[in-house]
Amino acid sequence: MKKIVMIIASVNFRDEELSVPKSVFEESGATVHIASTSLEEARGKLGIKIKPDMLIEDIRVENYDAIVFVGGTGAECYFDSGIAHDIARETCSRNKLLCAICAGPVILANAGVLKGKKATAFPTFGMELERKGVIYTGEPVQVDGNIVTANGPQNAERFAKEIIKLLSF
C-alpha cells in the first residue's frame, strides 16, 4: 500500500488542493497522512477544517512514497522554512515523488530542488520561480522526473491523478 503525506498550513491552505487529491489518493488505495505546524484543527481558506495527523517536523521521508505540499496563501509559512526545505531535498535525494500545487512550488524552488527543472505554479509566482533558476512552463500540471507541480485548485484532480499514475498503483 502506498503512503502519502500532505503538508498543509495551519490556516488558509486551499481547501480543494487538500480535499480533492486526498480523495483521489484514498480511492486509489493509498494511506494519506496530514502534516502541519500544529496539531490543532487547521482551517482552509474556504472553511474546511481538518485535524493534522502529525507535525511537519515529525515527517520521516523514508516512510512515504510521495510528499505533497498543498498551496493557498497559508503555504507562505513554508517559503523560508528550513524544515520544509530539508523535507524537499531529502525527498529528492531518496528518489521519492515530490509534489506541490499553487503556491507550493515556491517552497520547492526556495529549497533549491527545482533549479534547471520544468515546473508550474499559480501564475503570480511564475517570475519568482524563474528567479530561482526554474524553467517555468505555466502548464496546468508539470512533471519533471520525480517532481510534480500544478498551477492551482482548478487542476487539483488532474494533479492527483498524475501522482497516482507515477506511483504505479
- What's the CATH topology label? Rossmann fold
Strand order of the largest sheet: 6-3-1-7-8-12-11
Distance between the termini: 9 Å
The secondary-structure class comes to: alpha/beta
What CATH architecture do you see?
A: 3-Layer(aba) Sandwich
Poorly predicted runs are none
The percent range for helix content is 25-40%
Full CATH superfamily name: Class I glutamine amidotransferase (GATase) domain
The global form is: globular
How many distinct domains?
1
Got a strand count? 12
Number of DSSP helices? 5
Oligomer: single chain
CATH class: Alpha Beta
Describe, in plain words, how this protein is organized in 3D.
- It contains five helices and twelve strands.
- The protein has 169 residues and is of the alpha/beta class.
- It has a single domain (3-166), classed as 3-Layer(aba) Sandwich (Rossmann fold), CATH 3.40.50.880.
- It has a seven-stranded mixed β-sheet with strand order 6-3-1-7-8-12-11, sandwiched between helices. It has a three-stranded mixed β-sheet with strand order 2-4-5.
- α4 links the parallel β9 and β10 (135-136).
- α1 (15-27) runs parallel beside α5 and α2 crosses α3 (104-111).
- The longest helix has 13 residues, at 15-27.
- It is globular and about 35 Å long.
- The termini are close together.
- The mean pLDDT is 97.
Q: TL;DR?
A:
The protein contains 5 helices and 12 strands.
Name the features.
three-stranded mixed sheet, alpha/beta, 169 residues, Rossmann fold, seven-stranded mixed sheet
